[in-house]
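RECORD TYPE: inverse folding
INPUT: structure tokens
STRUCTURE:
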């Protein structure tokens, strides 16, 4: 498991986000990632399967099932509870970072007290 959410790349984030809707196979994950990212993230097949392998090794996704369709194996992946927690933590981290930049111009920065 990663030490922090900073180890989640943008493509990994969108793969995890895609799997929040339920188990998907590689091609469906790729289409969902493209849609969720507004077309910004379009990993090649090799890159996508590398991401899936790394996320599976980290325990944040797992193989849900395998089936054969038109003579080809199709592997479905699902997000684990750890993966849900990771993608939610990463979303909160990005939201907090964005709020610093998107606050009204000239608005004072009020850091949160340590430990709050």
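DESIGNED SEQUENCE:
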């Amino acid at each position: 498991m990663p030490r922090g959410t900073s180890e989640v790349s943008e493509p990994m984030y969108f793969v995890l986000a895609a799997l929040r809707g339920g188990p998907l196979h590689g091609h469906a994950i790729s289409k969902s990632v493209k849609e969720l990212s507004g077309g910004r993230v379009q990993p090649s097949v090799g890159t996508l399967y590398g991401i899936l392998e790394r996320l599976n090794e980290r325990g944040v996704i797992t193989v849900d099932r395998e089936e054969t369709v038109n003579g080809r194996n199709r592997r479905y992946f699902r997000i684990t509870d750890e993966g849900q927690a990771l993608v939610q933590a990463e979303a909160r981290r990005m939201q907090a970072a964005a709020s610093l930049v998107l606050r009204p111009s000239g608005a004072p920065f009020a850091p949160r007290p340590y430990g709050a």
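NOTES: Confidence is low (pLDDT under 50) at residues 1-5.
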